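User: Fold this, then the next.

Assistant: Folding the first:
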Amino acid sequence: MTSLDIDFVRAQFPAFSEPSLQGQAFFENAGGSYTCKPVLDRLTRYYTRRKVQPYSPYDASRLAGEEMDEARARMAAILGVDTDELSFGPSTTQNTYVLAQAFRQWMKPGEAIIVTNQDHEANSGPWRRLADEGIEIREWQIDPETGSLNPMDLENMLDESVRLVCFPHCSNVIGEINPVTEITAIAHAAGAFVCVDGVSYAPHGFPNVGDLGPDIYLFSAYKTYGPHQGCMVIRRTLGEMLPNQAHYFNGDVLYKRFTPAGPDHAQIAASAGMADYVDLLSDHHNGPEAGATERGTFVHDLMRAQEVALLQPVLDAVKDRNAVRLIGTSDANRRAPTVALALNRNAEAVAADLVGHGIMAGGGDFYAVRPLQAMGVDLDQGVLRVSFTHYTSQQEIDQLLNALDDVL
């Protein structure tokens, strides 16, 4: 495989040439990535040339609608799904809440939903609240030492009353990549639908959702180098089965059924910049000439290879350190580059100490209260989280490791 041209990559992100950010290494990518130039260019163009109601016949309006449609079509193709199976909403949290309301209307009391305690609260809380409506909530629990989910445990929880299984592609603190295809097959064999929270995985390469197989896949564009939108894949069979959550006259349009709020025209249009970025990387690295899904897979693999190479030295540096507990596996091939460390002192204070070394990172619970509690982490202390993505350089990794040596 061609190795990632890190200089070319970083040239696509204006943040790396911003004077106020010079000398600071960004390790809070799990909270939100830098935005790539194609997205910023499209957003600026929309606000300056297209800021009108879209889909009318005059040019500014017609072009506005075409750019919104382009974003949906190109991103759906990268994800390996039909264009109308991709919806945009204000956030993944909001999208999940809307989905939960649809399931509330569709399910009967006594039927069950399986959630995990590995999730960020956004893909757990909305489903758990359905217990108030008579829906049974079953918790698929992690191993308290490793943080892993065991698919065999899920098999033992499934029966004819389970309608939905919700789990993360990877956790925002544990980082281990779950076997989505295997878990989906287990759930489908029992007659249950599957909802995957991909917020913490998608920044490390857009997945081929069509091949992975879940019925719902969610992620946040502001963590995948784009605008602040929630991206939601709902496969046709399930999407047409659930009750419409939008205006009644939009009920026959799949991508509108689960977006009750008015769309953010400019940010949806700017989301096509994420596809532009995938194409830029594919072309520069001699990727496939045709096929958006194939090009997306090629870029996904480039990103993952870069991240794994940078991640393993970080894991090796912290896994055996005194008074530091690495949350999750120390094998870079099995996880995303989101590294949470439980320390013997307050993690937010340690993050503040890192600022003096030019490291931008965070401390706290990151809305992952349930997995941290399950693993025995003191929530008053929290965890230090250092997270990066494919645009992180070797120099920044060295800066991080030197800083951790000094601070820890």
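Now the next one, as you asked:
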Amino acid sequence: MKISFDKLQKLWRGQDDFRIRELNCGISLKAVCLDTMCDDAKVSAFVLQPLAYVNADAFSEVERKLAVGTGVRKPPNLFAAAEDLTNGYTLVFDGEDNCISVDTRTAVGRSIAEPPTSMVMRGPREGFVEDVKTNITLLRKRLKTPDFKIINLTVGKYTNTAVAVCYIDGIADKSVVDSVVQRLESVKVDGVLDSSYLARYLDVNRTFLFRRIGSTEKPDIAVGKMLEGRLTIVVDGSPMALTVPYLFVEDMQSPGDYYENSAMTTLSRILRFISVVASVLLPALYVCLQVYNYQIIPLRFLITVLNASEAIPFSPLTEMLLVLIVFDILREANLRMPSAVGISLSLVGAIVLGDAAVQAGLLGAPAVMIGALSGIGLFTMPDNTLILSLLRLAVTLVGGFMGLLGVIISVLAIIVYLASMQNYKTPFLAPFAPDIPEDRQDALAQVPVPQMKKRPKSIPNENGDRRG
């Protein structure tokens, strides 16, 4: 639609923050902006002051004078002009509906700080914020190369959210880039308030369990993933950047792994893996061994468990389900309470409530201990806590009805399900299924950084050599 000052004014009629300033510098001009989205100092420095001393005969002279601003452009149509206006640009019109857009956006938001969910002992402490321009600056600061490419998009009918697809030209697979951009352009939604909205659209075959789109709050982690061939999607208004493609093994990795000794990193990752497996399987094993396969338990341990559970009025399965549900309720309440109250709630729930239940004979001490250990282990994979909690309940139910055989069948079903998943030409369970020995250098075990000479083969890329 052709740009027209009257049509633009009609769109914003009745808006209290819609400002019009009439100027005369040889020709009649109108400067239009949204007061709530513009910086008054920038409007004055980049628009009003330059035009105050101009004596122009043509609109082209006005355009040259406004070149003092770093962001000056001509919107191609009315929709582009309206989008610039809502993003904080000032529009300058002449009497013939020629239009210039000048960047006068206000910088409102929190300052750069260490992200609360990705704290590290060593390494950079900068984290993404809610401003897309600032986040791209943090990436550009670490990738001082013209090969760092950015594709800017706008998503959301009413929010017009700025989205930037970032990648390294010559490393990222072009077909993956095109696929991601195409899916983002096809998103039809009223608004995008956070990057998690787009994660659901980027998942090619949406799955009920396990996320297949990565996320990070740290620019150094995002750059490290781009150096392996991944893409980073930055969304305005969100401190979480998305990364694709994504592997399940990345959940075992921590932001500080690449700044520590490789032997300690390997040990930490193995402990995380054992913790997650134990968290999911311990309650089910406790139930099925106590009910069906008690002959496997050592005699002294069996006697201890029976003595602690003989007065409990519930069956082992019901007892364990009660423990798991109570701990899940405490976790949810703790997450939604103010931090000071949340600490008190955790202490009261974990110590006082658990001890009172044992003393009253409602729950056995072994079941409470197993539930607590299982709950603690889930937080070694914090992004998948809810999913793992759901799997834990499901496996416990199967173990309670089918015994050890049911637990084994459940584990095999989960592994087959994970192995069948694929997103953007990347097997979700790589480098273990399919088996890619070269990629195991940074899976559960990590080799020293100088020995990582090749990029992961499980991630599509155009240059497999890390040093060229």
